[in-house]
Amino acid sequence: RLREYLFEEQGFAGNAEEYYDPRNSYLNEVLDRRLGIPITLSLVLVEVGRRLGLQMEGIGLPGHFITGARVAGEHVLLDPFNGGAILTGEACGELVGRALGRPVELTAGQFVPVTKRQFLIRMLANLKGIYWRREEWRKVVAVIDRILVLTPHAGGEWRDRGVAWSSLGDFHRGLADWERYLTDFPNAADHEKVRTQFRRVRQKLAQLN
């Protein structure tokens, strides 16, 4: 009944045509427009369900986000992006395979419900990716600021914020973020690449002075 109410009566739907529209990642916009991406539609379904006393949870599969529900003692998987369709484990694998562009065999561990913090971090990561593609660097910085409040030890975020600051021409802040990344994560796979960029920008600043 909840699926029918949200996806048929209220018209919530996946925005496949404009998937990377930032509005799909803002809950207030999703509620107003009735359009979203898998994670924001999952959030709507989970929170409405919980307020009705249902056991519901978000499940962050690779490349796709779905919802789990306990119904009459059974664990049911739902796909809010596709009208709340009921999924089998095999169907989930196919969804993820299409999202990643390669065959995928999912494990039980990938169906573990996300915490509220993980939910929020993944929503912010989606938004960061959208703004990154658009090269809207100030918005990238704003999103990463929020991610770092939640996960201050996420090395990649310090590195990426350094890129964003440098793209905005704020090289001092960019260097500070890269320096932190290089210091705190000396064994990172891209350590030398970031160090080279750090030296290049620092040299450029020295020439300007």
Summarize the structure.
With 209 residues, the protein is an alpha+beta fold.
Structural write-up:
The protein has 209 residues and is of the alpha+beta class. It folds into 2 domains: 2-111, no CATH class; 116-208, Serine Threonine Protein Phosphatase 5, Tetratricopeptide repeat, CATH 1.25.40. It has 9 helices and 6 strands; from the N terminus they run H-E-H-E-H-E-E-E-E-H-H-H-H-H-H. The protein has helices spanning 2-9, 27-33, 38-51, 89-100, 116-133, 137-150, 155-167, 171-184, 191-208, and strands at residues 13-14, 35-36, 55-61, 64-71, 74-79, 85-87. The strands form 2 sheets. The chain has a 4-stranded antiparallel sheet with strand order 3-4-5-6, with helices on both faces. It has a two-stranded parallel ribbon with strand order 1-2. The model has no long low-confidence stretch (mean pLDDT 94).
Number of helices: 9
Q: In order across it, which strands form the biggest sheet?
A: 3-4-5-6
Strand runs, count: 6
Largest sheet: 4 strands, antiparallel
Helix content: 55-70%
What distance lies between the first and last C-alpha atoms, to the nearest angstrom?
Answer: 67 Å
Q: Stretches where pLDDT falls below 50 for ≥5 residues? A: none
Beta-strand level of the residues, as a percent range? Answer: 5-15%
* Global outline: elongated
Order of helices and strands: HEHEHEEEEHHHHHH
User: What structural class should be given to the helix and strand makeup?
Assistant: alpha+beta
Could you say how many structural domains there are in total? 2
**Integer-rounded radius of gyration:** 20 Å
Average pLDDT, to the nearest integer? 94
